[in-house]
Amino acid sequence: ICKHLLDKPFYNDFERGAVDSYDVTVDEELGEIQLVKIEKRKYWLHDDWYLKYITLKTPHGDYIEFPCYRWLTGDGEVLLRDGRAKLARDDQIHILKQHRRKELETRQKQYRWMEWNPGFPLSIDAKCHKDLPRDIQFDSEKGVDFVLNYSKAMENLFINRFMHMFQSSWNDFADFEKIFVKISNTISERVMNHWQEDLMFGYQFLNGCNPVLIRRCTELPEKLPVTTEMVECSLERQLSLEQEVQQGNIFIVDFELLDGIDANKTDPCTLQFLAAPICLLYKNLANKIVPIAIQLNQIPGDENPIFLPSDAKCDWLLAKIWVRSSDFHVHQTITHLLRTHLVSEVFGIAMYRQLPAVHPIFKLLVAHVRFTIAINTKAREQLICECGLFDKANATGGGGHVQMVQRAMKDLTYASLCFPEAIKARGMESKEDIPYYFYRDDGLLVWEAIRMFTAEVVGIYYESDQVVEEDLELQDFLNDVYVYGMRGRKSSGFPKSVKSREQLSEYLTVVIFTASAQHAAVNFGQYDWCSWIPNAPPTMRAPPPTAKGVVTIEQIVDTLPDRGRSCWHLGAVWALSQFQENELFLGMYPEEHFIEKPVKEAMARFRKNLEAIVSVIAERNKKKQLPYYYLSPDRIPNSVAI
Length: 642
Fold this sequence. Notes:
By secondary structure, this protein is an alpha+beta fold. The chain has helices at 94-110, 146-156, 187-194, 198-207, 228-231, 241-246, 313-354, 360-365, 372-382, 390-393, 400-408, 414-417, 419-425, 438-461, 465-470, 472-485, 501-523, 526-530, 553-559, 563-576, 597-622, and strands at residues 35-39, 49-57, 63-72, 77-81, 113-114, 123-124, 215-216, 250-254, 278-283, 289-295, 306-307.
């Protein structure tokens, strides 16, 4: 072992923000290098040092890369192996086996599971961002300060003058324009102009920011006693409602999950309300989806009427607003928080606990969990905690969102995260039948590109199914996800272990797709679809109507969020829809954890496939007044980081 001090003469080494490279020449013969050790001594209070990699040039002129991409803090040391990915079976030398074991022992002490709320997927054991291991913290905590970002967003949108005006209603729908930033020719402007139309309402279930609820209705539920007579004027094929169901033209969205959830009571001056609607939709002769019946609560009865397009304008409009508000709640807490953020965090913690840095699956996944644990920790600290920002404007704040996640856990299954299966399970797979479902079309293209890529990487490192089965580190990773993430629920369908290369490649596709594409599809459209408040009210200030013919426009405006809540909501959806400063998009792997040629070639093919998808989507969008671009790979970040 020979030590060398990294020091340039007459140079201020290791300045904050500086990027330097150092050359070290060794004269003595060192033999085959197994490990390189970097030590750091502590001199100043904050003198953390980030090391990208070390390149070794051998006497024969070969170059060997030792990737690091980690922080050295305090009196720290890091032992690095060269960049060739190795399974445990490939390590025969004692020192390498020991290094592998020690790394996991250290990581398991650093990355501990914790139950944030009963029944939730477990999360990282850290009270706040600065308690996290340095390697997974944000570069600057300022960038992800929710309080700061939301307030900044309100300033940017010039709406901060309203931010304290709680309890103060708007005067009419047009009044909402005071806080609405008109950017012409954008989706948000179209929403503002057309939100009251049934076509726009129906379209959002396919291509809005919560395109995951609509399903084909195979039989009318007993709890929705709707008859042909009621909806006759909406049906265009001279068929009865039952026949339309049989022909596959009827769709349903059921917000049963919201039934009995406690509404926000954190502000004694404002009563807030929730509903649990059932919405029936129809595919008309133009193949567009439109609503034909809405019941605002689960149990039918005289005080729970079925609202229809043939009702008075205000009745029908208010019923649709209740559905949009319910959709917003399920979107934020289940589709977005639980099914992308919390699930990705589980994959990230399990990866750090069970896969050493030299493992090919660690190298593959590390880019797809970047900053996820950090953003979630920050959210638990500021956003979704008791008295957090979420309570300010949301009817499910003050604990309702916690109850929702607890309920939704039973539907969090492995199959529901496999994109093609999830689409099929809702009866939404046919392109001929449902031609305008762009979330499905683009999602399938991206899923397939990721699947081909993971299959290639798996093929490079696992020459047979048996090698997969015998990789104990890999099996421990899967088991961690199952036991701690899915809480050991058999019904989750999450595999405790995988037996074949194909199964492994599908599992990795789930991990990468959820962190990248699924999150992008449900996150970055929030400003587009939710900034026009009447189209996505985060709270309602009067209970759902129990009779027809009573509601006035004034009452509707008084039911919608007040000025203060509207502002906080707008700040949130704006901040959440922004990309990070130096965002890394799908297929971008600037950190070279892999050094072997076959993987580099697989990555290049992956990028090429993604570029082809970008072109296909751009071509389709050219002709569209409402383009769908959330699943275009050049807009899909690699990981959940906002």
